[in-house]
Amino acid sequence: FARMRAERKAVADEHRARGREQAEIIRADVDARVTVMLADAERNSRTVRGEGDATAAKVYADMYSKNAEFYAFVRSLEAYRNSFNSKNDVLVVQPDNDFFKYMRSDKVSN
Q: What's this model's pTM, rounded to 2 decimal places?
């Protein structure tokens, strides 16, 4: 009975070893596929981001060529937004500084 039990145990151990080997092969294959997918996704995202940046640059260039004053206004708004990111931001400049050109009431048109 002990010999039969040992033989069955050996067969079971062999099946487990083959199963672990197959599992490792499957994991390696999946890891390789994931790596390729992530690399493709990163490449695609950079391509899309680059195309978006190019489109934005073209829009800004077109806007500037059509209306330089409006372009300057939009850029000022972006500068305002970037300068005041938190409620604790403090900016010390002269009120007549060009940075606030579009915030002064003498520039507002009706």
A: 0.49
